[in-house]
Design a protein that fits this description.
CATH architecture of the largest domain in chain B: 3-Layer(aba) Sandwich
Oligomer: heterodimer
Structural class of chain A: mainly alpha
Strand content of chain A: under 5%
Largest sheet of chain A: none
Number of domains of chain A: 1
CATH class of the largest domain in chain B: Alpha Beta
Order of helices and strands of chain B: EEEHEHEHHHEHEHEEHEEHEH
Shape of chain B: globular
Radius of gyration of chain B: 23 Å
Order of helices and strands of chain A: HHHHHHHHHH
Number of helices of chain B: 10
CATH superfamily of the largest domain in chain B: P-loop containing nucleotide triphosphate hydrolases
Structural class of chain B: alpha/beta
Number of strands of chain B: 12
Shape of chain A: globular
Number of strands of chain A: 0
Number of domains of chain B: 2
């Protein structure tokens, strides 16, 4: 009996992957879009260097990793869960023997898989086209990437509980995601007016991108900046707490 | 053997009593219909039995389980067709069945299940290319692929055209052939009459009548209608044979025709509408 959840978990992970890649919109907006943005912006930056002396494309790569984590974990998972809830898919799954924890574990792993693949593509293309360096601390970076994607997934699950309709989910999520990404420096600089900077200061993405820069550009350990780690983790946990309180399996509308 | 046993079930939403102390049993292998107008408490009742809702009061046992505890063993043995539900449009009929089969320890054969619901020719078609009726067949296929003992069908034909309804009825009848117990909700009388072994009429959260469809109408009087001098006459009687004989004999003797002669017994519809009127607010 103990083995059944493992079989169910693998089965659901395969299902999540099949559903993700079969859906052209999710495959494009979640997986390909950040890669495209990186190529576009990267070609714009060319050989520019930042004031700190880093290659502009390397800073961009760190920012895009941050954006990718938020896009995959937060936006992708939130939209997926809202759509499935409103379509009655979650309710239908609830009547089967698949345990709720197994469902979420598989959804989370699937998200991490997609993002890990995206990170590999970003590093590969950066190396090929913009001469960015491969990470000097690959294990630390891998840990950070998984940590960040998991935290944003927690926020995504929590946010899904706040969105009422499937039609509006994409708009709501991107209304949060895109400004946060700009303000946090996903696409380059961070020189915004004070008020806007203050907004970025409370959101998790800026801290996550700081961590990515520390580890990727400065070859630091992710633990060298525990404050930033704590902020990102707190947001992820906050999302989970919200999910535990408010998450529902049944359609809110109709 | 009893598949479902309900005693004094109550359930309220925000202080409004949706189900007010109903009791009924469903035997294994029986097709049981919960019939009633919209808002009568049918879906609430079924969702308590499916394990989606916690009851406020009363005893409920389904296949020996308390559905409120939502154990995996319970879910292994039930199949649920929801009122309305969509799925991933890009997946094929077979992929969807395979996904749901994988949730159960001892599922039915996927292809056999697809054959059973009449979608063999659409096996590799994507969901988005199918018609509404074909999608409903998938709903049933996914509820059956776990090889459940008990199948819940919540208004399986609402919104169907007449041909699609007949097809759906054939499918439900085939469930009986498989030995499944079926709990069906519907607000269509003819559907309950066609499919159910027994029917409970639910009005405003209470069961106002329960029995075989034929029993529900048996107690009612026959009605004889005819025209006399251009005026419609309606006579209710417990002895229609006798009355009809007298009427026709008299008419024959006088050499006139009984215009518009009609003998009818109250249909389930009449009984139902009476019940709904009495029980309604």
């Amino acid at each position: 009996m103990k083995r059944v959840p493992v079989r169910l978990y693998l089965h659901q992970l395969r299902t999540e992957q099949l559903v993700f890649w079969r859906n052209r919109e999710s495959a494009f907006f979640i997986f390909a879009f950040p890669v495209m943005l990186f190529l576009l912006l990267g070609s714009l930056y060319g050989d520019d260097r930042t004031d700190e002396g880093y290659a502009g494309t390397a800073v961009l790569l760190a920012g895009m990793l941050g954006y990718g984590a938020a896009n995959t974990g937060f936006a992708g998972l939130a939209i997926t869960l809202v759509v499935r809830r409103e379509y009655g898919i979650l309710k239908r799954i609830r009547s089967t023997p698949l345990p709720a924890a197994t469902y979420f574990a598989a959804a989370l792993t699937s998200t991490l898989l997609v993002f890990a693949l995206q990170a590999l593509v970003l590093f590969g293309l950066g190396r090929l086209l913009y001469d960015t360096e491969l990470p000097g601390r690959p294990l630390s970076l891998a840990f950070l990437v998984v940590f960040g994607a998991a935290a944003f997934a927690g926020i995504g699950i929590g946010t899904s509980a706040l969105i009422r309709s499937a039609e509006g989910s994409s708009a709501v999520v991107n209304f949060i995601l895109l400004p946060m990404a700009f303000l946090s420096g996903s696409f380059g600089g961070r020189d915004y007016p004070r008020v806007l900077e203050a907004i970025a200061d409370v959101l998790p993405l800026k801290y996550f991108i700081d961590l990515l820069r520390d580890v990727y550009l400065e070859q630091e350990s992710p633990w060298s900046n525990p404050g930033s780690l704590a902020v990102v983790a707190a947001w992820g946990l906050g999302g989970l707490v919200l999910a535990f309180r408010r998450f529902g399996w049944e359609p809110r509308e109709r | 053997m009893t598949a479902i046993s309900v005693r004094d079930l109550t359930k309220s939403y925000d202080g409004v009593e949706a189900v007010r102390g109903i009791s009924f049993d469903v035997a294994a292998g029986e097709v049981f219909g919960l019939l009633g107008p919209n808002g009568a408490g049918k879906t609430t009742t079924v969702e308590v039995l499916e394990g989606y809702r916690q009851r406020d009061g009363g005893e409920v046992e389904v296949l020996g389980y308390d559905p409120g505890r939502a154990e995996r063993g319970f879910r292994e043995r039930i199949g649920v067709v929801l009122q309305s539900s969509e799925l991933w449009p890009g997946l094929t009929v077979r992929e969807l069945h395979r996904i749901f089969a994988g949730y159960y320890e001892q599922p039915r054969d996927v292809d056999e299940t697809i054959d059973l619901v009449g979608l063999a020719h659409k096996r590799d078609a994507r969901l988005k290319t199918l018609s509404g009726g074909q999608k409903r067949r998938i709903d049933l296929g996914l509820a059956l692929v776990g090889d459940p003992e008990l199948v819940f069908l919540d208004e399986p034909t609402t919104g169907f055209d007449p041909a699609a309804r007949r097809n759906a009825w054939e499918l439900v009848r085939s469930l009986r052939g498989l030995g499944k117990t079926v709990l069906l909700t519907t607000h269509y009388l003819d559907e309950a009459q066609q499919l159910a072994d027994r029917v409970a009429v639910l009005v405003a959260g209470e069961i106002v009548r329960i029995g075989r469809p034929s029993e529900l109408t048996a107690s009612s009087k026959a009605e004889i209608r005819y025209r006399e001098g251009g005026e419609l006459r309606v006579v209710e009687t417990d002895e229609p044979t006798q009355l009809l004989h007298e009427l026709t004999a008299a008419a024959l003797a006088e050499g006139r025709e009984l215009d518009g002669l009609e003998v009818r017994r109250a249909t389930l519809e009449d009984v139902y509408l009476d019940l709904v009127d009495e029980g309604g607010p």
